[in-house]
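Dear all,

This email documents one entry for the complex benchmark we are building for the journal club exercise. For each entry we list the sequence lines for every component of the assembly. Then comes the predicted three-dimensional structure of the complex as a token string, followed by one or two observations. Please use this as the template for your own entries, and keep the labels exactly as they appear.
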Amino acid sequence: MVNAVLSKGKIIMAIFVIVIVAVIALYASQKIYLAKGELNKNLTIGDYAPDSTFFFANGSEANLSSYKGHEVLLWFVATWCSGCAQGNELLNSSYKEFSEHGVKIVELELYRDLGYSAENIENFVQDFAPEAYQKNVVIPAYASYNMTLAYDSQGYLDIYYLISPNGKILYENGPLEATLPELLSEINRTVGI
Amino acid sequence: MVNMFKTIEGINIVLSNKKYVATFAVMATTAFIVYSILLESSSLNLSAQKIAFGLDTYALIASTALGLMLSLSIVLNIFAFSRSNMRHVDKASIGAVITSIAPLTLCCSTIIPSILAAAGIGASTVISTAGIIEGPLAEYEPVLIGISFVLLALSVYITSTKIAKNGECCVIKR
């Protein structure tokens, strides 16, 4: 009992260290996971992207195949995610690099914002990437349940897939805000494939 | 009535010992780095470069304030626990430490989805519930940071006052 009382300081220190190590380990494991290009075990680079349905704010629907012939970036976000907002701000200052290569960005609100609804995706994009929105480089839309399940079954925030004009996955990564240089380099490399 | 003199005196007693200064420095640095990563939100990437150069003002101030206060609170408690006349568990301090770490680790990263997946929860449930946990934490993040800071400050005040009242006495010999 006395020993137990005496070691409480060490217990607190141990809890602190365990929490810190656990957090770092989780992030590091995700970093390694992403480095392998495995955002989604069911979808890997080179696969044909599922032709899922998504919706626009006016209620009309579209499929990935609607963009056949264009390189498309499918970017999955939640509108309560501050990192996603930062990604939009960055996109607003670099959208020309996408438009020059003819890449359309379909920014998709994950199904029902993963269960916690905030701002609608159209307002979100207009707020944080107004110029890119006006130039029609970023197209806000709502991912259907099936699309969310197909592309983001783990419920990750802020992930994207670069799709070739013939519907194949060229590149996948996230978050956009942190990986934009790699994405642009990939677009430069793959344009015209 | 808050007695700031007692608080400063208590902190001085602890930080006059090199061992506690070293512990405080290591903890504060580690806590700052971890808070920085967490506050940069949705950070799937762990980037030392980003921590060093990419922090915005909000993340920099919050990480510094929480890192310093959390480390100070823990070091003061370790000191208090090592004295035979201050061995009582300060539940407020433990609560403050947990409160200051838990909310920020749960928001906007891969942690919640990973925990849900590791718990064997199916994809359909994950995509409909992950936001229920992460969303409010993201939306009220500044409030949570404020509450965490206040709780840690309270913990520092209580513990340092206790130390100041008891002075340097009663080191437990092992």
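Observations: Helices of chain A lie at 2-6, 8-35, 82-99, 121-128, 130-134, 145-151, 176-190. Residues 56 and 141 of chain A are 5 Å apart (CA to CA).
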